[in-house]
Amino acid sequence: MRVDIEHILFWMEAIRNSADRDRTLESFWRGQINSKVWLIENLQHYITEPVTIDIHGGWYGVLASLLFQSESNDNIKHITSLDMDIETVAISKTINMIEFQENRFNSVHSNMCKTKSSADIIINTSCEHLTKEEYGKWLHLQPFNSIIVLQSNNYFDCPEHVNCMQNLKEFEDSSMLDCFISKELILTKYSRYLLIGKKRVNA
Ligand SMILES: C[S@@+](CC[C@H](N)C(=O)[O-])C[C@H]1O[C@@H](n2cnc3c(N)ncnc32)[C@H](O)[C@@H]1O
Q: Is the CB of 26 within 6 Å of ligand 1?
């Protein structure tokens, strides 16, 4: 993946314009970026025709921006990044300004647990931020025919993480997906888990 200067300039503009710059910078930690690049490397094999993508809990839109700069870009018709933190809306639009102006990106303020997606691919890298009950509600709303991409981790040492996983097996067992990818990425402080699959018929 190659990140080009025009995109980096919009990333910097988003950080400069943020009311809480340190918070925005958290989405650029090495572990955060490497986890998203790893997700894209695994997902790109399933983006073989033009697709729409919804990213639930999309935070500041860095994953969307990396997807637009990946080899899958030509097959990405549109990405919607959805988050319940209103502060993320303007920041993620700036981070994805090039694609926002091309009508290929939008950022919306909403609760994913009340949002039924109709996208071809639905990504949720914020599973550790949802309680078990919230995760169940969220998954119940999502369609059976979409590809679902999930990430969680075992980084228990963060107050915002209300539902970390002990290991990959626990994540897979609790996810209610028929998985075609189930992988672990070992980072310096924690492990990130990745599942790609479709909703189990009885989920
Ligand atoms: C710290 S961030 C992202 C963490 C994740 N590991 C990642 O790198 O994408 C978690 C995000 O999930 C969002 N979030 C949590 N619960 C949500 C919900 N029910 N609906 C929408 N967004 C939610 C938060 O507002 C926050 O922006």
A: no
- Which residue range is the domain that position 150 belongs to? 5-199
Q: What is the average per-residue pLDDT within 9-24?
A: 96
Atom of ligand 1 nearest to the CA of 112: 20
- Confidence grade of residue 160 (pLDDT, cut at 50, 70, 90): confident
Per cent of the chain over pLDDT 90 is 90
Average pLDDT value for the chain: 95
Structural contact between residues 163 and 120, judged by C-beta atoms closer than 8 angstroms: no
Residue 178: which CATH number? 3.40.50.150
179 torsion bin: left (phi>0), alpha (psi -120 to 50), beta (else): beta
Q: 197 with 147: CB under 8 angstroms?
A: yes
> How far is the C-alpha of 139 from the C-alpha of 203, rounded, in Å?
8
